[in-house]
Amino acid sequence: MKRKLARFAENETFPHLFQPKMFPPVDHPLKGKWHTDFFKNENPIVLELGCGRGEYTVNLAEKFPEKNFIGVDWKGARLWRGAKTVQENKMTNVAFLRIMIQNILNHFSKDEVSEIWITFPDPQPQSTRERKRLTAPRFLDQYKQILKAGGIIHLKTDNKPFYEYTLGVIEENKHHKIYSTDDLYHSDADNEILGIKTTYEKIFLEQGSKICYVKFTLA
Fold this sequence. Notes:
Blueprint: H1 2-11, E1 17-18, H2 34-39, E2 45-49, H3 55-63, E3 68-73, H4 76-88, E4 94-98, E5 113-119, H5 137-146, E6 147-157, H6 160-172, E7 176-181, H7 191-194, H8 199-206, E8 212-217
Parallel strand pairs: 1-4, 2-3, 2-5, 3-4, 5-6
Antiparallel strand pairs: 6-8, 7-8
Helix pairs in contact: 1-4
């Protein structure tokens, strides 16, 4: 508990970690102004939703310095790790946002985001929790409001039923599937990007799990 409290306290000192009041959700001062007021450039903004410790966000930012990255999660103790790495490495193209993803529209404006990554989210396997899945239609409808036309969404998951659910949502709602595989590391996908592995992903692979991936755009 003391360690967690220490991390929460340090989170308050990071200028690149934003922790707006969650209830009630209100529009953030940077909504529509991430380019001008935070990143100070017009480079594309890429979100990682449910970023956990921010490993994927940080690795993508290192690979693509010409883009801006924002990791989104609601667990502050996890975000601390990513925010700490960004501070230690003096990275200027990364931010973190501690919010509930269902409040994403309070933090980004129309066409403000160029790309979205969803990496190993909670698959919410119970049928009664379908609406909480990050590729459920209600979430995709929100993403559409902030994504530029043709903006790509990537999903990586070790949960095949969740992957198949997402494929079903894409087909039923006439979204455009660009690529999909239920065994990423035995596929012809571009592993320069997809080969970035989080701690949990490495554990899944060591346990023999197959990683599923789908890349798509919204109708």
